[in-house]
Specification:
single chain, 109 residues, alpha+beta, Alpha-Beta Plaits, four-stranded antiparallel beta sheet, 2 helices
Length: 109
């Protein structure tokens, strides 16, 4: 998961060409390595809707569940052989230089 400061999410279109070129290079490398399984940018928290069900009641509210300086701005689903490879890949994500990359395994089914 790619965490970044909320204003950075709004500025991506204006920061644009250089950052998007870096992401294109990253994605091309991951495709060559055969490890990318998915990923995408997420809209800012103002576009979020939170859903909770408690005792059968559905509660819907605008915005994220938790307020924080950094928000999840996107994600990459990468299939790695081990944690070392996952960390090496995470360090290549362009936002690692200005935000935070969280590496988390998925549950095997």
């Amino acid at each position: 998961m790619i965490y970044t400061d909320e204003p950075d999410l709004e500025d991506v279109p204006s920061a644009g060409a250089e950052l998007m070129a870096e992401y294109a290079t990253f994605t091309e490398e991951m495709v060559r390595r055969g490890v990318i399984r998915g990923g995408d940018r997420l809209r800012p928290t103002w576009a979020a809707t939170t859903v909770q069900v408690r005792d059968g009641d559905v509660m819907i509210s605008d915005g994220p569940f938790a307020e924080a300086k950094q928000q999840i701005g996107g994600y990459c689903l990468i299939e790695c052989t081990d944690l070392d490879e996952a960390l090496e890949v995470a360090a290549r994500i362009p936002h690692a230089r200005q935000g935070t990359i969280e590496v988390r395994p998925i549950w095997e089914t």
